[in-house]
Design brief:
It is built from 7 helices and 6 strands. With 205 residues, the chain is an alpha/beta fold. The chain has one domain. The longest helix is centred in the middle third of the chain and has 13 residues.
């Protein structure tokens, strides 16, 4: 949505003639930092977009020193629901060079998510997370549980490189410092997560 309206039209109009195409998804931060792209004021920009029939879903990262607090997330999701926006994902910061200052460990991110989610009404409980968009796919931290006297992360694919992995759960040893899937070790002494051999084959290794 940083393109000119003419360019947006150039790319979108041909898609509208594709009979098998059911949905067009546009990912943009513009509603947050450039509502003037649509109109002069943020709430009005949201109303204007929704008036076209478009559905607005929100996803946001959990970031240390910015929003690492359940109350902040609860307030944001409640406001989004009031504006007709569907809370969609809380996601975890990717493993980039600047991550260390901003990272929130998975266990803490789960606590923040649960603390906010528990205070939401049903309309706001459309949100999922904490989510990692990583090499195998999109993985959610579902829970921390104790199984056979071992504390574990319960993880689940919501999207995956192999569609057969989608919606499958798997377990990792609990590590309060882990902040990304690469920091995790399979639970109960397993040598690898169930998807890793196939994933390595996809990468030719």
């Amino acid at each position: 949505m940083m393109m000119s309206t003419a360019l947006v039209k150039k790319y979108m109009c041909p898609l509208l003639g594709v009979s098998t195409l059911k949905t067009i998804r546009i990912g943009t931060r513009s509603l947050s930092w450039w509502p003037q792209r649509y109109t002069a004021e943020a709430d009005a920009a949201i109303r204007r977009i929704r008036a076209t029939g478009a559905v607005i879903r929100s996803q946001s990262p959990v970031v240390r020193h910015v929003n690492d607090d359940s109350g902040v997330w609860r307030e944001m999701w409640q406001k989004q629901v009031q504006l007709g926006i569907i809370p969609y994902y809380m996601f975890v910061e990717r493993d980039t060079g600047t991550k260390r200052y901003f990272e929130v460990p998975l266990a803490e991110a789960l606590d923040i998510y649960n603390g906010a989610y528990q205070q939401m009404s049903g309309l706001g409980r459309t949100v999922r997370g904490p989510s990692m968009s990583c090499s195998p796919g999109k993985v959610i931290v579902e829970d921390v549980a104790e199984i056979n006297d071992e504390k574990v992360f319960v993880l689940k694919f919501t999207q995956s490189r192999n569609p057969e992995w989608t919606n499958k759960t798997f377990l990792a040893e609990f590590d309060e410092r882990a902040s990304w899937i690469d920091d995790l070790t399979p639970a109960f002494g397993e040598e690898a997560f169930f998807f890793e051999p196939e994933l390595m084959g996809m990468y030719g290794s």
